[in-house]
Amino acid sequence: MAEKKKVNLNRVPMPKQEPEARRKNFNEVALGYTEEQAMEEANRCLQCPKPFCKDGCPVNVDIPEFIKAIRDHDMPEAVRILKSKNSLPGICGRVCPQETQCEGKCALDKKGAPVAIGRLERYVADWERAHPEISEKQREHINPNGKKVAMVGSGPAGLTCAADLAKLGYEVTIFEAFHVAGGVLMYGIPEFRLPKDIVQGEVDYVRSLGVEIKLDHVIGKIATVDELLQNGYHAVFLAPGAGAPMFLNISGENLSDIYSANEFLTRTNLMKAYLFPEYDTPIKAGGNVAVIGGGNVAMDASRCALRLGAEEVHLIYRRSEVEMPARAEERENAKEEGVIFSLLTNPDCFVGDEQGKVKAVECYEMELGEPDESGRRRPIRKAGTEFTVPVDTVIVALGSRPNPIVPSTTEGLEVTRWGTVKADEDTGKTSKDRVWCGGDMATGAATVISAMGAGKRAAADMNAYFNG
Amino acid sequence: MYKIVERKVLVPNIIHIRVEAPEIAQKVKPGQFVILRVDEVGERFPMSLADWDRGKGIIDIAFYVLGTSTRKLASLREGDYIMNVVGPLGNPTEIEHYGNVLCACGCFGCGPTIPLVRALKEKGNKVVSVMEARSKSFLFWQDRLEEVSDELHITIGDGSYGRKWWTNDFTEEYLKAGNKVDRIFAHGCPFMMMECSKASKPFGVKTIVSLTPIMVDGTGMCGCCRVSVGGETKFACVDGPEFDGHNVDWELLINRQRTYLDEETRSLDLWERENWHKIVEYSKA
Question: What Rg, from alpha-carbon coordinates, does chain B have?
Answer without folding.
Answer: 18
